[in-house]
What does this fold into?
Amino acid sequence: MNLTIFSLGVDFVPSGPPMIFRISAAAELAFFAKAKKAQTASLSRDCPAVSSGPRDTRNARSSLAKIDTRSINCQIHSDSFNFINRGFKNTLVLIPGWAVDDRIFSQLNWKYNYLIPAKIDPFRLSKALSDYLDKNSIDKVSLFGYSMGGFMAKEFALSNPKKVDEVFLISIRKKYPGQQLKEIEGQLKKNKRGFLYKFYLDCFSDSDKEGKDWFKKNLLKDYVKSMGLEDLLRGLDYLGKVEISANELSQIKNLKMFHGRLDKIAPVEEAEELAGGKLDIINDAGHILFSFL
It folds into this structure.
C-alpha cells in the first residue's frame, strides 16, 4: 500500500502518518517533476514524503485548489492514498462520487487534514482504508462521502464503527434504478464525451452560477476527455449492487447529511426519507454543491 504525503502550514508532524520534513522550494519543484514521470514507472517504486514548508492557507478556498494530487502520486491504484496535512488535529477522508476525482473537492475548506484515495475501486475501498489506518496507527477518522462515495462511506462506517468519528453524506440516494444504469451504460458506449458533458452540467442548479463557472473553467474539459470508460462502467456496476437504508443510517453515530433541493441526479425526497432529522437541505444547490459548504 502506497502513501503520498503533502504538508501544508506545518514543518513537522510528530505522530500519525510517517514523519514529514521540510525541503526547499527548489527541491519541491524538482520532486513534482520527478513524481509526475513516476506515474508510468514500476509499481514497486515508493514515493518519498515531501513537505512544501509553511504556507498561509487561511485565505485560500482550499488546499486542493493549488495541488493536483494526481500528478504527485507515484502509484495510481485503489490501495494508494494521499494524506494532505493542513495543520489540523483531525483527519477527514474525502471519497469522490461517480465520474469525478479528488479535484471535485477543491472548493471545500473544512478544518481537517484530508485523506484521499488516489484512485477508487469502489468494491475495495472499505478494506483498503481499514488496512491503511491500521498500518499507519490512525485510530479514528471522519468520513465525507459524496454521491457514489456515500455508499462507500456508509459501508466503512458500519463495518468499522470504532475507527469512525463523524460521517458526512453528501448528495446520496437510496439506490440507483437498474434500468437507469443500463441506459447510462448504453449512452456511454455510444458517445461517452457527449453524455458526460451533459451529465456534469446537470449536476449544477441554475442558481449555482459560481460553482458551475468554476467547474467549467477548471474541470469540465479534462473530465470529459480523461474519464476512462472502463472505470465509469465499473462504477455503474458498483452502483447497481449497493443501496442505503434508513435503518443502516440510524446505526451510524455523529451522522450529518447535506443535499441540494434542486438535485437532478439524486432526488431530495429520497434523502429526506433516509435522514431521520439529520439532513441539511441547501435550497439553491444541485448535485454538486461544494460552493455552498
User: Anything to note?
Assistant: Residues 1-63, 65-78 have pLDDT under 50 and may be disordered. The longest strand covers residues 164-170. The CA atoms of residues 60 and 109 lie 8 Å apart. The longest helix spans residues 178-202.
